[in-house]
Fold each of these.
Amino acid sequence: MNRDRLRRLGFALLAPVSAFAFAVLISSLALWASGNDPFTAWREMLAYANDTRRMISIVNRAIPLYISALAVGFAFKMNLFNIGVEGQYQLAALMAAAVGASVDLPGPIHVLLILVVAMGVGAGWAGIAGVLKAYRGVHEVIATIMLNAIVTTGLLAYLLGNYLRDRSETQILKTHDLPASGRMPSLNRPLAAIGIDVPQGANLQGFLVIAILLGVAFYVVVSRTRFGYDLRASGVNPWAALASGVHPKGMIVKTMLISGALAGLVGMSQLLGFFGRYHQDFPTGLGFAGIAVALLGRNHPAGMAVSALLFGFLSTSAQILDLRDIPKEIIDILQATVLLSVVVSYELVRRLVAASEVKAAAAATAGAATQPAAAALSEEGDR
Amino acid sequence: MEPPAVELRGIAKRFPGVIANDDVDLVVRTGEVHAIVGENGAGKSTLMKILYGMQAPDEGTILVDGAEVSFRSPKDAIAAGIGMVHQHFMLADNLTVLENVVLGLEPKRGLALDRASARARIVELGERYGMVIDPDTLVEHLGVGERQRVEILKVLYRGARILILDEPTAVLVPQEVEELFASLAELKSQGVTVIFISHKLDEVLQIADSITVIRAGRTVGTTEPAATTARELAEMMVGSELPKPDTQGSTVTETVELELDGVTLEETGRTVIDGVSMRVRRGEVVGIAGVEGNGQTELVDIILGLQAPTSGRVLLGGEDITQASTRWRRNQGVGYIPADRQRHGLLLPSPLWENAMLGHQDVVPFSRGPWVNRRGARVRTAQIAEDFDVRTPGVDVPAHALSGGNQQKLIVGREMAAEPKLLVAGHPTRGIDVGAQAAVWTQLREARSKGLAVLLVSADLEELIGLSDTLLVMYRGRIVAELDPQTVTPQELGSYMTGAAA
């Protein structure tokens, strides 16, 4: 049993690890071809990351990527492709920032309210795609892409410019600042308590705790609850799930609502822990990056955590490359190659594993193939 | 004397821990239809994979037309004139017959497909072998029997003179089987050698010139239809007597478990089910006979709540459940053995214990409140595997690793273990071997005697007659006859099924 599990874990790791190794190889070739020494580049990046301040930066960057991946991965579990995390989190961040700045509540409740608003807005926006899919047959990829377009090309600027703007500020377009009770404390003090010196100006975002809790909740809901079972069954075989009593339309809507609620939290670590307001330069692209993180992490909460940290490391360490006159676009090449090769390697590993499982099952049930059948027959005859 | 088309001598193939083939001998004469019969897992498929170059034998020799060959891939086999038609068709629906046939071997004119020469060749092949089919029809518009003809044409187009057909009749309705057999006779008269894998013994007796029986990876013997009977063949296959599907004494009670009242289903202006009223009482097996496509599938869907009827009522234990959800019905004790087990009954990549809880995910021991009870599910799955003879190394093995017969036994097991009130079973023994079939029949009878109401939809007349207390015939969405299985003859049934007696 234990060996069996170990073997399965090995298989699970085989695909992402080999995909990553392949991507490193390709990027090294690209570096080498452009006249740079790949070994120097990788060594510089690793050396750069080996520093408390930058490690904190890596984790801070990984938090929104991880939550974005959870949102995408949850929908993936029932074969729904929520490309709309991008629009969902941006709209949610704007609305949550505006609502948060307009009320004054005691600390934890204030933060909670902001999170609830963010989740509600994200869920609502994703829910539109869910309802369209379930009741009008509109493919969720089309619907979420269009919903993204609505948010990013017009809705955000319209709402911010006309209704939610902080008019006292004439230079930049932003919401009112969150009061202190609506901010989230950093984890610097707990870090200091366990003996890690946090350098001046670095802050490990408190939202990390929530991200970890979300990861645990993701695992529990997907793997340990009846709802999660129905969700996975619908993803594996929607017809069989239907016959087993899963209501497919309800399932689609629920899944999109949950995925959207998670998406709503993507911008929260930066809103609550860094900016304290929504403004023109609020980070974009986290929703699309989350798709990549989910893909590499195989929609598994632990795998996605590793892959979010990896992406966080790459974007943090990319900064050193410029200083060393190495084109930092190499990071884009690396990330793109990881994505392409991970898709291929999953398929290869899937076939490999399937073949080995069939063989193992045959081996384990070997011996007199027809004997039990004959026994059933003679039992029949005796009757 | 002409050498045999195919001769296999002492073929052995071992997988780690399994001997799939152990000293198989086979002689197929040129221009004959040679049937290979055996239970699931007897080694038929492995043997054909070896002959078709998909696997290399560990021992033994293969001779084609008297010359020893060694195939490294199906390409080599095709070059030697061997072609295979798989049970599951491999056709592109959105291409025409012509395009499918030439796919991968297109005659070119410049860079373009030379349609004229391809068409000429296909028409010529079709005429020579009596398999006329319009080369310009899209495959998606073809029926199952026609698709199979396209597959055969594909193989012939590649120059095959030796044709391997893997359970070709499993997917066909009776008329299509007749057409296939006519085609095979035509092929034979043109000198094509056909190797026909099946476990439908009456068909084998009808079409084959020679029959080789394989059991547990060994050749049991070769015989001819004239010299044997289905019963003898079955005995050779399983090594003991063939089960007789007879009901011993009626267990039918007066309590009606399922009642349909004027159920009608209209789909895009077509009446698929037309005013069906029927009752299934506790302890009764009601069989529904009919050629596929006469409304049986939709009837099952309506009973399970997968589809809502246009009008009419469905009652379970006297309660109107027409509007009830599938989940509610399943939790009320409606068991379901789907006709297409892989599509409607299994989560192939998921472990067995997750498959065993499919359709029972709300019920102890599979779940507790909102939680999945993994330990309970595993224990119950192991119990099902033991009680229903599902041969598996464990409950964490994915369902796709099991053979078809074992998958079916798992489905039957999980439904029976839940002790349903009503069991809706579609083709419960389709594609499984004689031994497993007997076991399923036994289980159904036992459950019936304990008061289970069974609605049995099957294409296997022997199964229907053997198991049913009441036999209904469906034709064009109506129940056209209610027959007594004790006295009905296959001829009588057949005439109702085809509408001849209506």
Amino acid sequence: MTETWVVIGLVGAATVTLKSVGPVLLGGRPLPTRLAGVVSLLAPALLAALVVTQVVGGDEEIVLDARLVGLAAAIVALLLRAPLLLVVIVAAVATAAVRLLV
Amino acid sequence: MSRTRYRDGARAIVPIALAAAAFAASFGVLARAAGIEPVAATVMSATTFAGSAQFAAASILGTGGGVAAAVLAAALLNARYAPISVSVASLFEGSPLRRLVESQLIVDESWALSRRPDGRFDRHLLIGAGVVLYVCWVGGTAVGAIGGEALGDPASLGLDAAFPALFLALLVPQVRSRRALAAALAGGAIALVLLPFTPAGVPIIAASAACLIGWSRP
């Protein structure tokens, strides 16, 4: 439980600082172009890593289970341009269904 | 150019804010699945107010990745707010404290809404939209976290599969260029290779190195 509060405190402090970089810390000056280029690629790199670790991640091993079916269902929903929340629900329902049946 | 008011931003964001409230409710539910209590989840939404970072921190904590990995991954995901806040810096005036507080209303949605056709940004649209989004985000989290208590076992509900689906749905709109695609593929590959050999959390942090693709000039 304490671990959770430490994370909440530190993530909150980091986010408050990052959002104030322009308005408070830099006072209107721009970021160097190359740095901005690197920062803009952090989100795609990290989100892809989160997809991988959350779908096949185990205890220091790769685990293939019903989560893969959920992700496949989510991909179909994304291709059909379903809204974000529906994509998430489809994945959960598909995974739950596989676990119920197998 | 017609003058805008805070009210205009608040009104324009309502459809998106309703979706954000539902999204926040799902954060409340999934945070509980990751072992985070309703009060903690709500406090996190009030102090962080950035969806993907909150989901990342919760999922890493839930899978035993530890404090350092959860904080680092969330901070790196939110690093985009540095250039975003730079782009709207001129909209904020007054004391440093006031600018600090108001700048917390910068989120992807309020920022996108406040961008005018001429490429400049509108303070009233950003602040008005930001306040409505904030209220919906914090309120939605509380509703989801408390309501989620009534749901059963997270695994039997497939909630563990909701996380990767969510991150994939957040990733798709980010991949708008060849470089972004390359960074995503490299990040995913790094994570997959390290997964069997390193403690939880490490593969995600290591994957952030893929952003160095952005160092070369386009």
